Amino acid sequence: MMSIIIFGSINMDLVVQTHRLPQPGETVTGDHFLTLGGGKGANQAVATARLGASTYLVGRVGGDSFGQELLASLNNFGVNTQGVFIDKNSSSGVAMINVETGGENTIIVVPGANGKVEQSDVHRLNNILPKTSLLLLQLEVPLEAVQSAAIAAKKFGVTVMLDPAPVPDNFPDRFYPLIDIITPNQTEAARLVGFEITDQEKLNQAVNIFLEKGVKIVIIKLGEKGAFYGTEKERDFVKPFAVKSVDTVGAGDGFNGGIAAALDRGLPLKEALKWGAIVGALTTTKEGAQTALPDFKMLENCLNE
């Protein structure tokens, strides 16, 4: 049985729900406060685990109560956390999230232990890479460590999938040939290619740039409009899955997790994209990130419809 490794961030999300987001310098009254497990790495690990994939998470938490809570929660979701290092000299990563009634949000992240992920964390990948189908990466831990993880994966012939979020100021061109699948949203893609993506022509231009730099599959997330994907042989839109959205936090992570879980099962790209669209959409129908991610039965019901 193959498995998926997620190398990335683990956060405690401190969530405030409010009728509207404040303007700069303004104070508004919130309606509810929640503490929830988060971080793009942890979210994507929960997404793949809930869809039935054998999932390993490699990263760091702090030596605080948040760290223990996060590990316990991940284990309950079925994520293997043996590759998570407890950094007793750091706090756990924290994300402060404001969510308005319509589902829009603003997020401030304090990296904590995530900011100290390094080569020693990459070394923990080596024991499990030989039995791995896919390595899923994001950029909430230091870029140098993420790139080293990709290099390690390529040595074992493992598919590398990168969610380039948040986009760094200087993303190195030498990273692109290590990436099999890149999944930016529209804003992130625009920052990486250097121009606004406003129509299909610009989408095609962006895909061309990523392919020329060495990426094999480009998937640009378009929010409520679905997604657009491109390879050397084909390009097309991915239809959105219609739902009533209450909270968009974690939707992109669900999208990535759905694609990864489908590819781990050996499904073709188009079917994997359908999984991603459904999982991402279903994630927006509940509050929070990890607690909102659907399980395989929910996905299967939607696929059958």
Please provide a written account of the structure.
This protein has 305 residues and is of the alpha/beta class. It has a single domain (3-10, 40-92, 112-304), classed as Ribokinase (UDP-N-acetylmuramoyl-L-alanine:D-glutamate ligase), CATH 3.40.1190.20. The chain is built from nine helices and 13 strands. The chain has helices spanning 40-50, 65-76, 119-123, 143-155, 186-193, 200-213, 251-264, 269-283, 296-304; strands at residues 3-7, 11-18, 30-38, 55-62, 80-87, 93-100, 105-110, 132-137, 159-162, 181-182, 217-221, 227-230, 235-238. It has a nine-stranded mixed beta sheet, with helices on both faces. It has a four-stranded mixed beta sheet with strand order 3-2-6-7. A hairpin with a 4-residue loop joins β6 (93-100) and β7 (105-110). The two termini are 29 Å apart. The model has no long low-confidence stretch (mean pLDDT 94).
Strands, helices and their partners?
Layout: E1 3-7, E2 11-18, E3 30-38, H1 40-50, E4 55-62, H2 65-76, E5 80-87, E6 93-100, E7 105-110, H3 119-123, E8 132-137, H4 143-155, E9 159-162, E10 181-182, H5 186-193, H6 200-213, E11 217-221, E12 227-230, E13 235-238, H7 251-264, H8 269-283, H9 296-304
Parallel strand pairs: 1-4, 1-8, 2-6, 4-5, 8-9, 9-10, 10-11
Antiparallel strand pairs: 2-3, 6-7, 11-12, 12-13
Helix pairs in contact: 1-7, 7-8
How far is the first residue's CA from the last residue's CA? 29 Å
Biggest β-sheet description: 9 strands, mixed
CATH superfamily, please?
Ribokinase
Secondary-structure-based class equals alpha/beta
What is the mean pLDDT? Answer: 94
- Give the number of domains: 1
Q: What is the CATH level 1 assignment?
A: Alpha Beta
Low-pLDDT residue intervals, each spanning 5 or more residues: none
Determine the oligomeric state from the structure: single chain
Work out the number of β strands.
13
CATH architecture identity: 3-Layer(aba) Sandwich
